[in-house]
Amino acid sequence: MKLELRGITKRFGALVANDHINLTVEAGEIHALLGENGAGKSTLMNVLYGLYRAEEGEILLDDVVQHFAGPGDAMAAGIGMVHQHFMLIPVFTVAENVMLGHEETGFGGHLDLPAARRRVTEISARFGFDVDPDALVEDLPVGVQQRVEIIKALSRDARVLVFDEPTAVLTPQETDELMGIMRQLRDSGTSIVFITHKLREVRAVADRITVIRLGAVVGEASPTASNEELATMMVGRAVDLTVDKSPAEPGAPALVVSDLTVLDPHGQVLVNSVSFTVHAGEILAIAGVQGNGQTELTEALMGLQPRVSGEITLDGSSLRGHTVRKILDAGVGFVPEDRTEDGLVSEFTIAENLMLDRSHQPPFVKRFNVQLSFLAKFAEDKVKEFDVRSQGIDTLVGRLSGGNQQKVVLARELSRELRLFIAAQPTRGLDVGSIEFVHERIIATRDAGTPVIVISTELDEVAALADRILVMFRGRVVGIVPGDTPRAVLGLMMAGETPTEEGAAA
């Protein structure tokens, strides 16, 4: 099915999110829509899907103008969407999620769940998804949950499929699997709109690329275009895709972790006797495939895991057993891996989120009253310093793009005197411009003498930032190696292989 958008314009008050956008996706084509966070990509697709109504423009399918009053009309016309944040009910089975909203009934008016199971099994077999229709969604890995979203769309005969930032929560392996699935769908005749800001993925899978910036189309490109060319089109300026940093000058040991073990509520070992040291003025990157204990290790350092043994000391003082508040007050800055769940309060303003760590103490609060004038000045300064793009400090943080939300978290954590900075998945879901900014701030923090821990599943990021790299596999430390260790060696370590003597370092 051929999709055409003509002159789509969508406004939110004075903000023009989409400015007369034209886009054509041919039948059986993967068309990438590339742009920074906040460029208007998702807004455009929400117009296509019937979630928003454009003030101007029209949507055509096979040269026929469409009028969508809501997502139901779009789905009926053959459009499906795989959202960045999955639209699944965790306590329902795969089959129940697939039939939700399109319930079929059998004899006596009962839900025809067997028909949904058969549909899941048929689609899963056709594309090699290996999805159990009776599995609970909450028990499935993230990559499999995404397959369930795809099955949902295909079960409703989608001939145009929109993937909205589909790799933001996937591991590198799951991303590769998704690329293969997209090619299968294309070869079966499905038209695909691939919304992303990741240059490597665009060049790997797209047939054509349209770049939008500040709500407008700025040009088309071929997948043969270089990363530098695509980044310049996205951002509107030359972007340094490499991290410029001088060699580290490590100081005294700052954070010392000894025999740290974390258990889940059932007594299962999640982190198994982990030991390492981070020195002042260095970046230790913790690498590994998602789900090998990095999250639980990070939570243990921040006092978020209840069943912890071993020792955690910062500048000689123990942190184990302390509350999160005490750990933050001890000078630990923390960027959590899920900014929307753990880093921000979406219903609070930018200004309110910027004071969360210190909302209990001066100069933000005096005699139980928020010092509004101080907060406003502080927030204005940080919004400018960290280039948070918004309509003002009173904007609800939930209305910001992912990149700008991450900048708010960084602004809050880096605006106080730190003795340790921990950043978990610091650039997950961010565009090249935002990634460049985040990396620069992390390097600047190291250069100021602060010990830094970066937890990332992105090997490119690990290699770019790390002075030393700790690799985890199944809750254990496989090895600690220099930051310039080859990707091939790191990949083997992430699969559980112990490094050779030449690659290992304490």
From TrEMBL:
Main location: membrane
InterPro entries according to UniProt: AAA+_ATPase (IPR003593), ABC_carbohydrate_import_ATPase (IPR050107), ABC_transporter-like_ATP-bd (IPR003439), ABC_transporter-like_CS (IPR017871), P-loop_NTPase (IPR027417)
Highest rank taxon of the organism: Bacteria
Pfam families in the record: ABC_tran
Bilayer topology: Peripheral membrane protein
UniProt domain ABC transporter: residue ranges: 3-239, 255-499
Keywords for this protein: ATP-binding, Cell membrane, Membrane, Nucleotide-binding, Repeat, Translocase, Transport
Subcellular location: Cell membrane
Record-linked CDD domains: ABC_Carb_Monos_I (cd03216), ABC_Carb_Monos_II (cd03215)
GO CC entries: plasma membrane
GO molecular function: ATP binding; ATP hydrolysis activity
The protein's name in its UniProt record: ABC transporter ATP-binding protein
